[in-house]
Amino acid sequence: MFQFEDRRSKMFLLAAAVLAVVLISFLPNQDVFILIKVIFLALLIGGLAYGIKAGMLDMEREEDEGEDTTDEKGDSIVDLSRGKGIHLTTVEDIEHHFDLFLETFLPLLKQILVANSVILLLVNFYKKKFYLRAHHTDQPNLLSSEEYFELTEGLPALILKSQQPLLENHLPESEHLLPYYKEKGGAKSFMGVPLFFDDLLIGILCVDSRLEESFSDDDLSILTELSKILTIQLASSNKLYEYETKNWTTQFLFNFSKRLMELRDKSALFSFLEQELPKTFGGDRITISERLNSETGRIIRVKGVSRELEQGMEFPLNDGLIGWVLRKNQPMMVNDFDKKENYIPRFFLEEEATPEYKSLLAIPIARDNEAQMVISLESRKSNSYTEQQKQILETIAYQIAAFLEKVEIIEQLKSHNLMDNLTGLGNERAFRQELNKEINRSREFQKSFVLELRKFNIPRAELDAKLQKKLIEEILSFILPSDHYKDYIFRLENLTFAILWPEKNLKEIVGNIQASIQQIAEKRAWADGFVEEVFVHSGVVQYPDDGKNMENLIENARHALRKSQARGANKVEIFEALS
């Protein structure tokens, strides 16, 4: 408004100036009038110059204001856009991003084709059913409350079978033609096209109308072309989903294995599982059960609303779901217990019902093709667990089985007094058994081997037994990664260890022993705030040159070790050099 009035004033002034020029031109050519003409012409030129400059400044100001307005609008659009701030870093983010795409795409498709409903059906290969993934409709009250439909039902089944687009403009009133409607008469015209991913039919895009003859062949072509946009978006989301899932799975299994190896016994394992699995996979109750015999199981741990279930309770294997998993050695996944006619017991036929738990995932832990334990997760939400989660838990079950087998072997060693309780290595009894086996094996195959006795000297450790224990643990962190296989290292007494080098001779191994000792000598042991220098002594013998039997080998090795101690720190003594 103000710009318009300003422009009108300028036009008026221009017209007045032109009129003044015309009138002054009629003045006579006398000196006085000529002076008047010159002065007026100067004023006119100055006024025009000023007006032109002011007009240019106004134009620049308007352009700047226009740019500011555009920027403000642009910022507003960006701020209000649903796409702003989307970070595709998790599976949930990817799913949300695809939902946003559908919220835009389906209404646009409905408007272009002048339809009443647009329905996206995806094929759930695990359930072998159609899944109602998304819809946009004028008649939501007519849609079925069911999310899954049979693959053999209605017009979508024809498209699935033929893998070709379908156009029907005269639909009879039948409740089975379009299974996503809960009653017949939902539509009179229908179009549907198949959706493909990697040459696999993964879904059907459906469009319908309440009027007959609503669609033409051109409409079907348009639907086919637009469905390709949906397929591209679905493929992109799926690729990113696979990438994110693979990364997450790899990282999770790596971290799980790492933490599992840090555990020492079954009790630590069960505490770890009942804390980590519900947090990672979701769950409001976790139970860990074991097989006692062919007819009975026992609850080891239960965490969550348990009613009368408690730790140590025994249950028959023929009553509930957990017993079935133990008997059949098969995983079980239940998506929605509410859809079952009756309550399905977990452990006992007469157990107190827990209807608050809607879904379950139970995985067996097997040994020798027989389930020995079951881990079950239950959630208050329906459809809480996926096929992928089931596969990950099955992988975890194999790791747990290997861990339990290791723990069992360790317990057997302890029961036979073959293990050193402080270090977890074999003790002197285990060393003598293994040395005797190595002598017999080497004699049979005419092989040699090397026996090394290695003693660590830490002054403070000789005075403080508690400190000695911690320093020994520190020393093991030095020796185990670099020296040899753990099965061939034994703790004899205090800070003395025996190391067997199978199928080796002194010439090829003595250099490695000296290098290992030098590496350890350069380290410092740390315990309770004390930093201690480590001195190492080593005595070595070779079978059969330095002894034909076990006692001779051990005595000669001790002789070499004493000689090493007499010579000073970090020395290797070979027995044959003493004779």
Provide a compact summary of the structure.
By secondary structure, the chain is of the alpha+beta class.
CATH homologous superfamily descriptor of the largest domain: Reverse transcriptase/Diguanylate cyclase domain
What's the average pLDDT?
Answer: 80
Number of DSSP helical runs: 12
CATH class of the largest domain: Alpha Beta
Secondary-structure-derived class: alpha+beta
Total beta-strand segments: 19
Enter the CATH topology name of the largest domain: Alpha-Beta Plaits
- Low-pLDDT segments: 1-5, 65-89
- Percent range of helical residues: 40-55%
The shape is flat
Evaluate the radius of gyration. 43 Å
Strand order of the largest sheet: 3-2-1-6-5-4
Number of domains: 4
Report strand %.
15-25%
Alpha carbon gap, first and last residue: 118 Å
Largest sheet: 6 strands, antiparallel
Named at the architecture level, the CATH assignment of the largest domain is 2-Layer Sandwich
